[in-house]
Amino acid sequence: MRVITGFTLKRSYLVFSMMLASTSAMGEIASFRFVDKVSKDGIGVINLLTPDDASKTSNGALLEAFRNDNNGELAFAVDISEPSSGSETLRSHGVALESVRLLLTFPTEVVEFTVFSSATHSFLQKSGAQNAVLTPTLIGNSDTTRVSPNPASEMTGSSWDSVFRVAVDRPLTEVVGAELHIDFFDVDKQAGDPEEYYDFAGRDEIVALLSADDANYLDTLAPGRDEAPLVLDASGASLTTWTYLPSSSGYFIASYEDLFPLKGDYDFNDLVVAYQVALGSGSNDGVSKIRGSGYLIARGAAYDHDWYLRIGLPAWASGSGTTRFYESNSERLVAGFPASVTVRGDVNLLLAEHIADHFSDGESTYVNTFEAQTVQEGPRFEFSLDLDAPVPAEEVSAAPFDPFIYVHETGYEVHLADQAPVLAHSRNTLDGATTFRDTANFPFAMIVPDDFAPPLAAVDIGLAYPTFLDYVQSMGDVEQDWYLKGQSHRVKEIPFKQW
């Protein structure tokens, strides 16, 4: 037997007639999945003659029918199964392709095809490398609502995602063996996004063979693509560019005192929230998409809170979106979510509701605030907004935007010091409680970088961070790194980025 690598573009009339005969004999083809998968180590050896459904048969004649249906290519789908982490969510997650090899065994030779294509690419840095290279990617989401026009297709009801194609220039009727070798790209996860988004995270990935109708459907649907970072075409041109705030791997930390307008114990752990926002723009340069995600990371209060994020937009801005709030350490949504959002100018996003019901430590309302407590993973939230027309970036309010809480027991909103109350049902305006600093200039809410560790319960932040007082009294002119100078026995380290 001889091995031929690559392919030639020459076709004979005999080959073309064989293609037509094969397709006619097979009738309408139906997409199906294989029993083999891409394993959790990012390597897949897929036997194309072994469908997952043992009652079905795959052979050379069937592969030829699929090739003919796809105009000289075999089209494959991957059901991308990645856990939610960082910018990867149930609504958008991805992997990258290092190589694809199709090995076809004929009676007298083995032929290898290595030319493949995918609709999306990204500049990614490989683990151990110094430079990023343009790399094919596969993007998807967790929806199970795919629909095929062919009732026999296994795609209906599946979560098959992205398509890649392998060009094959010869008839496959006589094939007696067929293996598809897939290697995922081992990205440098320490580089942040886009690399962190396109990693593979230890789950098997389903592979399926597609009819042309199903392949075109998935190409048009493009699941997850709108929210993926640095999505490029094969030339490297941008499809959507995302700007991450504060950064692709960083979070804003919002900490609150909920006894406003009273100062309370001033430990700034009544609620602690980590969040990140991304602004998406296309070739028109305006912001057309906004998304975000985050975690509740500590709660040291008896009161119940709602957490909001308000993003300022021009009055003419319009659009729609969705918010999602999940139970702790779960993909299960809290009752009432997902919730629809209508954009008309400024958007006020309720991202965590009645937090006391969803973030507790057994009988205690205090979570991740006592020294002896084991750190508990907090609830996660996400949002996505699609704007009807692009908004100039300078007309979107500046980060960190306006993160605030509503305290059910007091009826007050608590904002950052330079913000104003916005909820019609709160008491702030009625009571004249519209300034979020006390008479000594101390705030009731603040934003700090994500290496901040909240003080332990009932420990004044001035004791946990001795230079905080100088920072506040100077209006931020001195001791700007106060949050790096915590007393280790008075703060709680919470590794939320590992959740």
In short:
By secondary structure, the chain is mainly beta. Helix content is 10%, strand content 35%.
Describe the structure.
The chain is mainly beta. 10% of the residues lie in helices and 35% in strands. It contains six helices and 26 strands. It has helices at residues 13-26, 60-69, 212-221, 428-431, 461-464, 468-473, and strands spanning 2-5, 32-38, 43-47, 73-79, 93-105, 109-113, 116-118, 120-125, 132-140, 162-167, 177-184, 205-210, 231-232, 238-245, 252-256, 271-281, 287-300, 305-311, 318-325, 339-344, 347-352, 366-367, 380-391, 402-407, 412-414, 445-448. Strands 13, 14, 15, 16, 17, 19, 20, 22, 23 and 26 form a ten-stranded antiparallel sheet that branches. β16 (271-281) and β17 (287-300) form a beta hairpin. α1 (13-26) crosses α2. The radius of gyration is 27 Å and the shape is elongated.
Mean pLDDT: 90
**What is the chains' assembly state?**
single chain
Q: Can you summarize the main beta sheet? A: 10 strands, antiparallel
Low-confidence stretches: 1-26
Query: Radius of gyration from the CA trace?
Result: 27 Å
Shape: elongated
Strand content: 25-35%
Separate helix tally: 6
Termini distance?
A: 52 Å
- Helical fraction: under 10%
How many strands in all? 26
Sheet/helix structural class: mainly beta
